[in-house]
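Field log, afternoon session.

UNIT: design team B
ACTIVITY: writing a sequence onto a fixed backbone
BACKBONE:
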């Protein structure tokens, strides 16, 4: 009887295991908040200082109808001030030994990109934690009409709140929701049917590229079942130090390794609770 040599047994020691040069991409969260709020005062704090004083001038009372021979009293307003403080330092560091760097596949670029993503993810979490919608009547934090399903009636209710507060409808209103609520939009015929939106192709592309009742729709897994609707002016962010990557040789400490420090310095301030509303 013939003897057969197989790769599973006799030749197993000769079959190498090879490592692919390309890394399999890591699933990463969408981070829409960072680019959806305003940074109008960032230039003020770029070079020095830790606080930006932002002034707000309120409206005058409505004008007076004056007869030809009557005298009118001058009016006045009181200017308010809000402080945007640069007090958020966020970091992500890692160390790789020289031996590991020499003997392994080049992972430094991939690790750096993941560290930068960790910073941007934390930045978004700080922004979300800052959001406090107006709690006075009318309350800008309202509940879904049915469990956590986002329906047309919910979006209309939110729009009604912002319209009643005179929030500008200038094309920059934004909606950021969780993935469940984002996908609920595909069940709202008025948003995905070409009978209502001639340019709609949501059912074929899986994306909603047109505004939803004036809101630019975005989503992230970082908000759970809460949906945020706002004008970007409601919150100001200023980045004094953009995410910066620094490489240090630890040879001075007697270690054969390199340390990478990734750092950012920024501040956020909600300016107005009327320009934002939430569904939860």
């Amino acid at each position: 009887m013939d003897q057969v040599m197989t790769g599973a047994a006799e030749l197993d020691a000769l079959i190498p295991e090879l490592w692919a040069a390309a890394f399999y991409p890591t699933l990463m969260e969408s981070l829409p908040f960072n680019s959806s709020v305003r940074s109008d005062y960032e230039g003020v704090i770029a070079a020095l200082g830790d606080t930006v004083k932002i002034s707000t001038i309120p409206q005058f009372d409505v004008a007076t109808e004056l007869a030809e021979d009557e005298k009118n009293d001058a009016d006045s307003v009181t200017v308010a001030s809000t402080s945007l403080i640069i007090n958020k330092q966020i970091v992500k560091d890692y160390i790789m030994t020289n031996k590991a760097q020499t003997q392994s596949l080049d992972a430094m670029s991939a690790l750096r990109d993941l560290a930068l993503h960790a910073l941007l993810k934390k930045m978004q979490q700080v922004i979300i934690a800052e959001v406090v919608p107006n709690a006075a009547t009318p309350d800008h934090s309202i509940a879904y009409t049915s469990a956590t399903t986002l329906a047309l009636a919910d979006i209309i209710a939110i729009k009604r709140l912002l319209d009643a507060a005179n929030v500008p409808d200038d094309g920059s209103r934004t909606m950021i929701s969780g993935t469940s609520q984002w996908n609920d939009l595909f069940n709202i015929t008025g948003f995905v049917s070409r009978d209502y939106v001639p340019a709609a192709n949501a059912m074929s592309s899986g994306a909603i590229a047109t505004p939803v009742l004036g809101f630019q729709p975005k989503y992230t897994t970082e908000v759970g079942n809460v949906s945020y609707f706002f004008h970007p002016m409601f919150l100001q962010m200023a980045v004094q130090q953009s995410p910066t990557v620094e490489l240090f040789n630890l040879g001075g400490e007697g270690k054969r390794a390199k340390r990478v420090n990734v750092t950012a310095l920024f501040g956020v301030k909600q300016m107005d609770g009327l320009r934002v509303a939430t569904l939860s």
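LOG NOTE: The two ends are 74 Å apart (CA to CA).
NEXT ACTIVITY: expression trials, pending approval
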